[in-house]
Amino acid sequence: TGANGFADEAESSAGSGVAGYNLLDTDQDGVFDIIDLDSDNDGVYDGLDKCSGTPSGAVVDNNGCPLDTDGDGVYDGIDQCSGTAANLQVDQSGCPIAVTETEVQLLNTGSITTSQIVFASSSADIDVANSSILNEIGETLSRWPALKMQIIGHTDDTGSATFNQSLSQKRAEAVRKYFQDNFSAIDTAKYSAVGMGEESPIADNKTVDGRQANRRVEFKVLNPEDLKKEIEHRKLLER
After folding, report:
1. What is the Cα–Cα distance from 232 to 74, expressed in whole angstroms?
2. Is 223 helix (H, G, I), strand (E, B) or coil?
3. Residues 186-215: pLDDT tens digits?
4. In this predicted structure, what is the pLDDT of residue 87?
5. What whole-number distance in Å separates Cα of residue 14 and Cα of residue 1?
6. Greater model confidence, 222 or 43
7. How many Cβ atoms are within 10 Å of 4's Cβ, its own excluded?
8. Residue of 230 and 142 predicted with greater confidence
């Protein structure tokens, strides 16, 4: 028993609790458990933390609120590309998203047209190794999931018109299937495939270069009003 019995009283209070609380210090750091809590593990106790639920790895201030030094929307500590310039779009890691020629074409015209998707001769089999543009287009369209697209296949005038019509349809469907198999962010239910055959040439079929230009695939936005809304939304997000 301590002087005047105070030590015993303190031990009794710690064991039995005060005002209904059990005053334990489980980690023996000198702070009672009732205030020694950090639910989001950001280094700021819950009673002082003004921003609960901070993502793991984020750097916080003295109030427990995450910092975003470059203002790109990705917190310091998670941001793998600090110091991003203003107005640049970034991915979930805080790194700038490269704006490709296909995205510029999509935003400026509402469509993407390419003759760089290579198919086997007279076939709808895609030569993936020589069709890197297809992945670039897939990545671009993945960033615009609200869009409804029409994939349009075109051929040159070699062979019969009937054969070319069928071939262009199959090639458009093959591209749609490629997106379905390789780009989970693309909802191919919003994509239709159409074959135009040799009906809409953009170059002279009498030359090698002309025929190659005519063997093209076009990606056309069917809901341009939604594309416009998204463009305006992105502008509003710019600082």
Report:
1. 22
2. coil
3. 999 999 999 999 999 999 999 999 999 999
4. 64
5. 16
6. 222
7. 8
8. 142
**Tokens found for residue 187:** 């909802």
Q: How does residue 5 score in pLDDT terms, banded at 50, 70 and 90?
A: very low
In angstroms, the CA 61 to CA 64 distance is 5
pLDDT in tens, 126-172: 999 999 999 999 999 998 898 999 999 999 999 999 999 999 999 99
C-alpha span between 179 and 118 (Å, rounded) = 15
Cα separation, 179 vs 139, in Å, equals 10
pTM: 0.62
Calpha distance 236→239 (Å, rounded): 8
Distance CA 21, CA 2 (A): 24
C-alpha–C-alpha distance, residues 176 and 140, integer Å? 14
CA dist., res. 59 & res. 119, Å (int): 50
SS3 annotation, 30-52: CCCCCCCCCCCCCCCCCCCCCCC
With CA atoms as reference, report the closest residue to 82 among 103, 99, 96. Answer: 96
Give residue 147's identity as a one-letter amino acid code.
L
* Residues pairing with 218 in the sheet: 113, 152
**Structure tokens that stand for 94 in this block:** 């805080």
